[in-house]
Amino acid sequence: MKMRHAIGKNEYMRMTTHELRNHFLGDKLFVSGAIELLYWETDRAVVGAAVPTEVSLTLENDAALAAEFFCQRRELGVLNLGGPGEITVDGARFALASLDGLYAGRGSREISFVSLEKQNPSKFFLISYPAHAQHPVQLIPQSSANRIDLGTQADANKRTIFQYIHEGGAKSCQLVMGMTRLEAGSVWNTMPPHTHARRSEIYCYFALPENAAVVHLMGPEKETRHLLIRREQVVLSPIWSMHAGCGTEAYSFIWAMGGENQRFADMDVIKISDLE
User: Fold this and answer.
1) What global pTM score does this model have?
2) Which of 7, 37, 54, 262 might form a disulfide with 1, Cβ 3.0–4.6 angstroms?
């Protein structure tokens, strides 16, 4: 498991593009036949991916967690971005089609992943935060996620939000997870932008053609920077940074948060006129 330490907004202002990417971009997490994990010091988040091909993959513990097993003191959210697959949690098997999710609570000891079609492997996005209580394992089909339609074509931000792990859905300690899908012809997400000092956030962009990109905007409102994001790359967004983006074409992204408040509307909106 790779480690990524927290960066303050004063350090951020002096960083080059290379340094920004090294600290805030998660790359090469979706690796065929492997589980890749990245530990972020902010809120002690772990983000990663499992891409089983020929054999099943087991979520092993990492020595850095100082635990008997991965979810001994953690909860886990999963969203499948690939072909049909199956997750086994302590002997219970859950089938996930594309864009189905799963929540595994604190105390889940044995977790494994398998693809059901070798020519169309599953791509399981993984997000984990520390947990103080135990909640049951829950399969979350996309059809059962809370759907919210937002935006307009005139503003190039017509989009659909799917809430999987949230106050009114699958229960968790602090983890919140969902997905946003932009309609064809729309390219802006989370604009006007916002921050939320009560929780950090992680974005995973996907459903992008190989030659497409998203310009991800970050930073305090008076010191904005950008990162060029490709398909299946992750952005780490600390509490002092806004998070918004504009793509070369329509795309989708996973958003996941951890902190002291799970309320979706808990955000501090920034006026576009205040951005610099």
Assistant:
1) 0.95
2) 37
pLDDT tens-digit readout, 192-223: 998 888 889 999 999 999 999 999 999 999 99
**Which residue reads 């996930």 in tokens?**
96
Closest CA to 110 of 65, 57, 66: 57
Contact between 83 and 98 (Cβ < 8 Å): yes
CA distances from 48 to 2, 198, 256 (A): 10, 23, 12
Beta strand segments in 52-110, E: 57-58, 74-80, 85-89, 92-96, 101-104
Number of neighbouring beta carbons within 10 Å of residue 260: 10
Enumerate residues 6+ apart whose C-beta is below 8 A from 83. 98, 115, 116, 117, 120, 121, 122
Find residue 175's DSSP bridge partners: none
- Using alpha carbons only, what angle is made at residue 106 by residues 105 and 112, rounded to the nearest 5 degrees? 65
* DSSP-derived secondary structure letter, 169: S
- Per-residue pLDDT band for 262 (boundaries 50, 70, 90) equals confident
Distance, CA of 86 to CA of 93 (rounded, Å): 7
Tell me the β-bridge partners of 127: 47, 77
Edge-to-edge strands of the sheet including 176-182?
25-26, 233-237, 199-206, 252-259, 176-182, 159-165, 146-150
Rounded Cα gap, residues 84 and 219, in angstroms:
37
Q: What is the pLDDT of residues 149-171, one digit of tens each?
A: 999 999 999 999 999 999 888 99
CB distance 129 to 45 below 8 Å: yes
